[in-house]
Structure formats: structure tokens, C-alpha cells
Amino acid sequence: MNRPLILIIEDEDSLRRFLVPTLSGRQYQVLCAATATEGLALARSHNPDLVLLDLGLPDRDGMDVLREIRTWSRKPVVILSARNQERDKVRALDQGADDYLAKPFGAAELLARIRVALRHNLQAEVTEPVVCGDGLRIDLARREVSLLERIVKLTALEYRLLEALVRRNGKVATHSQLLAEVWGPGGEGNTHYLRIYMAMLRKKLEADPTRPRHFITEPNVGYRLNLEESGN
Ligand code: CA
Fold first, then answer.
1. For residue 150, which phi and psi values (nearest 5 degrees)?
2. Inter-CA distances, 56 with 7, 8, 88, Å
3. Could you report the per-residue pLDDT of 8-48, keeping only the tens digit for each?
4. How confident is the model at residue 123, as a pLDDT?
């Protein structure tokens, strides 16, 4: 079996000492770089299946690394970000990063994010129904949504928002990505639309809307549809 190759670009020794054994102890091969220059060289020479990218690198901004990788590769890039880098995180996602992990993170979270990122990118065609556990079933091919085997009626905008999340296949979607996809150019900046419509989706599709298990808020960033069976 081919073990996916993961490139870590991170200057913090302690974090690399956690990441390398955690990943190579699983089904992954691991390459490591401590600078942007070294990281880009390894990315070009090895074409990794996934890149874990720190934004705060000593020689160049991690954002430059992302931009450069995106000129020739669509492979998943997961940002490693400090809690106070909210704006950078969103910028990175809007510029083509697939997801992010906020430091500090544990092994379970890391492995779950990597699993999600390694699934195919945006799914243009979702032909099989998506089942999220708790009896939530979304069938994009038939435009049919059901909870506990009862069909749930959604408005056109609710459905479009749900569809945008489903197509991300468990990855985070930023506010501006969702606004553009669901409301078009007129939606720009209207984050409150999202709050309102997300509340509607939760009310209709979560067993307990006050403790959502599927429609997950990523504070200051966006939303994701949690597709993993055993919570997050
Ligand atoms: Ca750093």
C-alpha cells in the first residue's frame, strides 16, 4: 500500500517533535522543513500528498509558501496557526488552503483533519447520499434531506448553504466563501446572513440545536459540516 507523504513546514522544534512520531507511527511518510525555503524545495522535489504549513516562518511568510505551492499544486495544504492569527487563518483559507489547526492541538484532532483533507478536494458531483449519523441524511442527487427518515423541507437558500457545506466534504468553509457561493456578489460582508441561516439549518437538522454535532462553528473563520461519526 502506498503511504501518503506529508510535508511539515514548521520552525518550532517542540511541535516537530510531536508531529513526526505521531504521523509516522500511523500510515504516513513524513518530511520535515524548518524554513520556507527548505519547505518549498522539498515540496518541489517530492510533490507531497499533503502539506502542514506554519504561517510564522523565520525566513518568509507562510502565506508566500502557500501562494507558491498553489501555482503548481492542488494538493491539500493544512495551516498550523497560533490562536491570535485569526485574520491570517481566514486569508490563507480564502487563498486556497484546505483547512487549519489552531495551536495547541492534540493527536486525535490532527489525524482527523488530515483524514478529511486527504479526501478528494471539493466534490463537484456528490452522487451518493451523505449520512452524518444521528439520522441525518443528505441526498444531493435527489435534492432530498431527511432526519430520522422524515423528509425535511428546506428553503432554497437553506438548501444552497447546506449544499455548499456538503461539497466541502468536512473541510471548513470561510464566511466569505459561503457568502459568495450562496448569496453571490451581493452577500459580501453580510456575515449575519450566515448566522441566521445556520441557526435555521440547526433547528431543522440537529437533534439538539443548542448543541450542534453536525453544523460546527469555527469561531471568526466560518463553518464546517462534521461528517465524522463519533463527534469531533
Ligand atoms: Ca512558527
1. -110, 130
2. 16, 13, 10
3. 999 999 999 999 999 999 989 999 999 999 999 999 899 89
4. 65
Distance CA 167, CA 177 (A): 12
Within 10 angstroms of residue 115's Cβ, the number of other Cβ atoms is: 12
**Phi (first) and psi of residue 143, to 5 degrees:** 50, 50
Query: Residue for cell digits 463519533?
Result: 230
pLDDT at 231: 42
**Residues facing 53 on adjacent strands:** 9, 79
d(C-alpha 66, C-alpha 111), whole Å: 21
pLDDT tens for each residue of 88-97 = 888 999 888 9
Instruction: Compute the distance from residue 86 Cα to the ligand 1 centre, in Å.
Output: 15
Q: How far is the CA of 24 from the centre of ligand 1 (A)?
A: 21
50 CA to centre of ligand 1 in angstroms: 18
The alpha carbon of 34 and the centre of ligand 1 are apart by a number of angstroms equal to 9
Q: What does the block give as the cell for 209?
A: 440545536
Q: How far is the CA of 169 from the centre of ligand 1 (A)?
A: 28
> β-strands 29-33, 5-9: how paired?
parallel
136-186, pLDDT tens digit by residue? Answer: 999 988 899 999 999 999 998 999 999 999 988 889 999 999 998 898 877
Helix (H, G, I), strand (E, B) or coil at 221: coil
Strand-by-strand arrangement of the 222-225 sheet: 173-174, 222-225, 215-218
| 3-class DSSP assignment, residue 30 | strand
- Ligand 1 centre to CA of 8 (Å) is 12
